UniProtKB/TrEMBL annotation:
InterPro entries xrefs: DUF6346
Pfam families in the record: DUF6346
Presence of the UniProt keyword Transmembrane in the record: yes
Domain of life: Bacteria
Residue ranges crossing the lipid bilayer per the database entry: 54-74, 168-191
Name under which the protein is recorded: Uncharacterized protein
Protein keywords: Membrane, Transmembrane, Transmembrane helix
Amino acid sequence: MTDEDRAAYRKRRMAELLAEAEADVTRTRAAKQEPATEAGPVVEVKRSKWLTNLVGIIILLALSFVLIATSMTIGRFTGHDFADARRTGTATVEQCERRGPISLDGFGYYDQCTVTIAWNNGPSSRVLIDKPGFFKGEKPGDTLQIGEHTGSRGSIGYSRPELPDRGWVTAIGIALWIIGALPLMAVLFYLREIFRDLIRRQT
């Protein structure tokens, strides 16, 4: 092999090495750029999952509200047993305020009235009765029979003969309330897990 052949071989070998080095650099740059190109789809997937979870939470909360409000509405068709009242009297309606149609007390309108009660065995009293379904469209000046009941922790309730105690109505209302509380509990459990996950990531 002559000196010219050796020089030509060295040039070819140098060119091959340079080509390999350039190829390595190109592959390295491409590998570094791959995560950046894949970040877009990952972000979109996370955003889509977050929106799906948010919609699910809203649906569960709406379902819980509808069921609980329905149970409260059913509760308007039952009351204390008038025969069990500790005292009875005659109530005169002074003024009423219309409430509803959608509230934590259920669906539909109901009246909240201030009445003066002349008890059969005691002095008169003036009270505000806001139990949904208690009044049946009475106007100021109308009178009605009323009974007074004591509840737990000193609470006071009222009854009237037209709104008797219906145990089966109470049972249906309680069952719906319990069913309505389940979606709410699921949402609270889910949010608790999210907060726990955030705390773990920060520690």
